[in-house]
Amino acid sequence: MLQIKNWQNHFQKLFPYYKRGAYTVISKQRQKRNYLVTVITPVYNAEKFISQSIESVMNQSIGFENIEYILIDDCSTDHSREILLNYVECYDNIRVVLLDCNSGSPGYPRNIGIELATSPYITFLDADDWLHYDGLKILYEILEETGDPYVVGKTIQIEKGRSKVVGEHQSCKERRSVSPFSIPHIFHHLGPTARMMRTSFIKRKRIQFPEMKFAEDKQFFIDVLTSCQKISTTTKPIYYVNRLEETIKTRLTNQTNILQKTNYNLQVIHYILNRKLDSQIEKMIVNRIYEYDLIRRFFTTPHFQSTKLKLFYYYKFKRIVKTAKQLKYDFTDNFLQPIHKVIYELILEKRYRDVTRLLEWERNTKVKEIIIKKQKPFVVIPFLEEKYRYIPIPLYFTFKQHLCEHNRYILHFQVYGDHLHSITDVLIRDSKDAHNEYTLPVQISENGAGVIEIPLDEIKSFPPANYSIFVRYNDYEKMNIRQLIKNELKHRYENRIFSFYHTAFSNVALKIRQS
Questions:
Q1: Mean pLDDT of the region 496-511
Q2: Which residues, 6 or more positions from 146, have their beta carbon under 8 angstroms from its beta carbon?
Q3: How many CB atoms lie within 10 A of CB 248?
């Protein structure tokens, strides 16, 4: 391992100056190659995971020799630099950039990587995350096939003891050369994960990350998506986001409090409005930021839940509302969750105690009361008056009966709501491992009677685990089937016991065990 101390004193002697306090380190054996993909990684105090991240790039099925790997160290204070310099000495397709002053944002390091990239395609990898073995090959082949400037795949978030899919709207189905605006909620997940872009497209459009401590990737990918005529998506796993406890302190987003994040989100709002986009596209973006960043996340942080200074939050929110006065439309009209509109209206009425109580009720009430009015489902908020008591939900599925015959599990249920014809399929997914999932068709009649048939022969090889059963609609949105009365059904098939049971949230679920 290379050991270099007193970095500031050695920069100019050891490494060529690049730009604004950046110095490049290139292997002595480096030769010009026709790389297929450039991977760009900003690094800051990532010594615990950087080797795992680099190894995931080196082990790519596309072939490491076809990858240009650019890592930009943002003035780390741990051993990250020694680790990077050790790799650059051993591999001539690794290029390291060293910053002599911390930029305070992953934006500047990523911009350096874009500028230095020489391959046809670029992708981003954070220093504590890693790639699926086939990740780069899958994205590269799709862009080669379609000629699109952008493709995105599945991101899986790894937490202690479990994994889950992030941003399902963009990886729920295989799409080729479609308008980005044809994908519902395309602006609802704008991190750098699982995406590959045509380098010439990014450079020709002069798209760069703003140098902000937070929301820099949001603004960058808004610029990318609004500049694309066609994009592609895939259901294949591409990228793993590390959310293990060891990463919490090192991520910049965790060093930024909610009020700072709010200011950055408002900067993005102003930036988008100044771009004078098509009104429908602008509305898609603005609705997402107001609903989820400036309402949902603002009022669901642990600090808001515990602080006695909630009035300060409400005062800040009034200033947020003022930014919407220049809009020519009501940004709440297309909120994905109607409860967010209730929160918004209660705040406008200065009913702060009701807002606090509503948020606590939503967080703590596992099984909420649902009533049906004229075949439409509503969540009941018991402590609010008639105007706000009944919150509409798009669909609601209730259990009727189930049975096993001929080694097939058959579930009958009833559907209520306006989105009957948007129901697409059924998803069975391991509750802890997002890799284990299975989709199958669903039958829905005009009167809302639904039937699911699960052939046990097709899931007998599933690993023993607990599985959630979802009905999906609008491509990626999903909901469980409510079973208010416990009615467990067990069936033994070959070397497995299949138990269809009632969960703590009163939903139908599946447990598979060895017999």
A1: 95
A2: 176, 177, 230, 232
A3: 11
For residue 64, CA distances in Å to 56, 151, 491 come to 10, 21, 48
Tokens of 492: 């033994």
Find where tokens 């606590």 sit. 360
How many residues does the structure list for the chain? 515
Q: Provide the mean pLDDT of the chain.
A: 90
H or E element at residue 237: strand 231-242
| Residue entry with tokens 């990350």 | 209
CA–CA dist 404, 454 (Å, integer): 9
- Tell me the sheet residues that pair with 379: 370, 391
CB-CB contact of 469 with 428 (8 Å): yes
Backbone angles phi, psi at 228, to 5 degrees: -90, 135
Would you say 241 and 155 are in contact if contact means Cβ atoms under 8 Å apart?
A: yes
Place of tokens 């790894």: 158
pTM: 0.90
Residue 95 contacts residue 16 (beta carbons within 8 Å): no
Q: Once rounded to an integer, what is the mean pLDDT over residues 440-459?
A: 95
Distance (Å, rounded) from C-alpha 369 to C-alpha 357? Answer: 17
Q: What is the mean pLDDT of residues 349-366?
A: 90
pLDDT-derived band at 356 (thresholds 50, 70, 90) equals: confident
Q: For residues 426 and 225, what is the distance between their CA atoms, to the nearest angstrom?
A: 29
* Relative orientation angle of helices 50-58 and 80-90, to the nearest 10 degrees: 20
Q: What does the block give as tokens for 349?
A: 């009425």
Given a cut of 70, whether residue 2 has pLDDT beyond it is no
CB-based contact 491:512 (threshold 8 Å): no
Residues sharing a CB contact under 8 Å with residue 129, sequence separation 6 or more, in sequence order: 49, 53, 193, 239, 240, 241, 242
Distance CA 177, CA 230 (A): 5
pLDDT tens for 101-158 read 898 889 999 999 999 999 999 999 999 999 999 999 999 999 999 999 999 999 999 9
- In this prediction, residue 378 carries a pLDDT of 96
Strand positions, DSSP E, 218-269? 231-242
* Burial tier of 374 (Cβ tally within 10 Å: 0-12, 13-18, 19+): exposed
Of 307 and 387, the one with more pLDDT = 387
Strand blocks (E) in 77-149: 94-99, 121-124, 130-131
Sign of CA pseudo-dihedral 163, 167, 172, 173: negative
